[in-house]
């Protein structure tokens, strides 16, 4: 590849060299939503040869919720965060996707959300829109929604049913979550990527509203169960309150198992959360940034690289 060619053969600005993945590196699939999945992707791009991000389509808050309601569209916010994590940071558009308008009718909307939603509207296909944004920002991997249509996340908590991701995030004592419709169609490329992966990573992120929201769709869950890849669950640094208030690492794993999600090994940092009685193989390392509030991509990359099949 010439130095002025993009990762998919498209021209880049003069004098700019395309970013690339590790030649011969593993095929990695990462599932989840929000900032947690973006942190995983920033780590994975340091050792992977191929990356596919599979992102929850249940968000109904903020800019994503407004666009979802107005355009009947797959919510773009978490997709945008993952595109930024995989983008070439030297490109202006890459650093602009997170820009939020602060006045007028566009107040609160992120530029990237509008770009994804607009391209999906014009093309009639969210996958086409995402592929075009990947090209424009020189992304080193593919970003796919977990389902082709927006889904409603629902939770059962103490015999009461709660609907919508924002409402579920504010709910305590959750017994189980499910999607409506209950068997949404995932992109074919998402299922194929999981089946052919060398490593499947789930999380980190809010247990019910990010992690399980992305993997509980039946056909994705079945693909995770059938893959020959090593399945790694990256646990949150702290329990997300109120939805998982008081949870330890073992409680997070038990919730995955209760929803039929198979994993092989847990990657955690017990400095901010108790381990509990774990029934799975686990690796306990200091993975947080200095402020203790988020995963350090460098530390996470080393830990995940060591857990490739």
- Quote the average pLDDT: 90
Q: Spatial order of the strands in the main sheet?
A: 3-2-1-7-8-9-10
The separation of the N and C termini measures 29 Å
Tally the beta strands. Answer: 10
Q: Report the total helices.
A: 12
Low-confidence stretches: 1-15
* Cα gyration radius (Å): 18 Å
**CATH level-four homologous superfamily name of the domain at 27-58 and 142-305:** CofD-like domains
The shape, in one word, is globular
CATH class of the domain at 27-58 and 142-305: Alpha Beta
Would you identify the CATH architecture of the domain at 27-58 and 142-305?
3-Layer(aba) Sandwich
Structural class by sheet pairing and helices: alpha/beta
Describe the sheet with the most strands.
7 strands, parallel
Named CATH topology of the domain at 27-58 and 142-305: Rossmann fold
Describe this entry's structure for a reader:
Helix 8 packs parallel to helix 10 (about 220-225). This protein is about 35% helix and about 15% strand. The chain is an alpha/beta fold and about 300 residues long. The longest helix is centred in the middle third of the chain and has 13 residues, at about 110-125. It has helices spanning about 35-45, 60-70, 75-85, 90-95, 110-125, 125-135, 165-170, 190-195, 205-215, 220-225, 250-260, 295-305; strands spanning about 25-30, 50-55, 140-145, 150-155, 160-165, 175-180, 200, 230-235, 265-270, 280-285. Strand 1, helix 1 and strand 2 (about 50-55) form a beta-alpha-beta unit. The chain has a domain at about 25-60 and about 140-305: Rossmann fold (3-Layer(aba) Sandwich), CATH 3.40.50.10680. The radius of gyration is 18 Å and the shape is globular. It has a seven-stranded parallel sheet with strand order 3-2-1-7-8-9-10, sandwiched between helices. It has a three-stranded antiparallel sheet with strand order 5-4-6. The protein has twelve helices and ten strands. Residues about 1-15 have low confidence and may be disordered.
């Amino acid at each position: 590849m010439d130095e002025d060619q993009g990762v998919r053969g498209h021209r880049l600005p003069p004098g700019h060299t395309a970013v690339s993945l590790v030649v011969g590196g593993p095929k990695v699939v990462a599932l989840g939503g929000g900032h947690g999945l973006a942190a995983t992707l920033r780590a994975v791009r340091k050792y992977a040869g191929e990356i596919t991000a599979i992102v929850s389509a249940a968000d109904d808050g903020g800019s994503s919720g407004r666009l979802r309601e107005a355009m009947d569209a797959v919510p773009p916010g978490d997709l945008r965060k993952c595109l930024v994590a995989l983008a070439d940071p030297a490109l202006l558009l890459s650093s602009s996707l997170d820009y939020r308008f602060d006045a007028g009718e566009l107040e609160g909307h992120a530029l990237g959300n509008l770009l994804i939603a607009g391209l999906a509207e014009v093309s009639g296909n969210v996958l086409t829109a995402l592929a075009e944004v990947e090209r424009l920002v020189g992304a080193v991997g593919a970003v796919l929604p977990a389902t082709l249509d927006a889904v409603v996340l629902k939770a059962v908590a103490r015999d009461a049913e709660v609907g919508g991701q924002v409402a579920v995030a504010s709910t305590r004592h959750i017994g189980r979550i499910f999607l409506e419709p209950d068997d949404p169609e995932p992109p074919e490329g998402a299922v194929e990527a999981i089946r052919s992966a060398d490593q499947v990573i789930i999380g980190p992120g809010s247990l019910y509203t990010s992690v399980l929201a992305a993997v509980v769709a039946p056909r994705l869950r079945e693909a995770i169960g059938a893959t020959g890849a090593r399945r790694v669950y990256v646990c949150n640094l702290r329990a997300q309150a109120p939805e998982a208030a008081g949870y330890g690492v073992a409680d997070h794993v038990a919730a995955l198992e209760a929803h039929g999600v198979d994993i092989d090994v847990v990657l955690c940092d017990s400095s901010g959360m108790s381990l509990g009685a774990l029934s799975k193989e686990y690796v306990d390392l200091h993975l947080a940034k200095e402020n203790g509030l988020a995963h350090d991509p460098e530390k996470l990359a080393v830990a995940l690289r060591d857990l490739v099949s």
